[in-house]
Amino acid sequence: MLMNSIARGFKKLRDFQGRDRRSEFWPYAGVIMAVSMVLMTVAIVPAMLQQFDQTLAFAEANPDQASVYRSATNVHVVIHDPAGMPPMDYSGMLVPLAIMLVVVALLLSAAVTRRLHDRGLSGRWALIPLALYGVGIVFWMRMLASMLTDATGDPSFMITFMLNFLVLMLGQLSLIALVIVLALKGKTGPNRYGPEPV
What we know:
The chain is mainly alpha-helical. It is about 65% helix and about 5% strand. A hairpin with a 4-residue loop joins strand 1 (about 65-70) and strand 2 (about 75-80).
């Protein structure tokens, strides 16, 4: 039954019609989310390690601008004066994250739509968290650009930061609400999206 639900989800990738029960949706969605988390970690961790190595190299080459503290289990770097530090390249983390979000959205879109149909709702409700996260990513990119040009003292940086925080919080809340709706039992009997799944 479990494997059938997962296989069915992949077979119906482009089918936005009809309704799905919870038992058809959650195994498929769980596999997509688990695999995406593993792939995201595999993609992002090397970029983070590369950034740390660059920061450590800067700190060791410029002891007047940074301090390096080492122990048997970790290395701690404190940058006292980031002015001479080369700008960080966040694309190694953001590009894989953006690609993964798009792939997950594409893989789940039809299944989420059918599950919402089972609740008697339009699949368009799933676009709310997607749109908020999209806007959040745009604000995040603007904020990173400000950080790289050392415009963090500019009042517009704080406005961008606060807007980004607000948009991402709304995105998170709307995603939680969507997950709750997807977890609820479907409507009994036929609805405008088709007969009750058996």
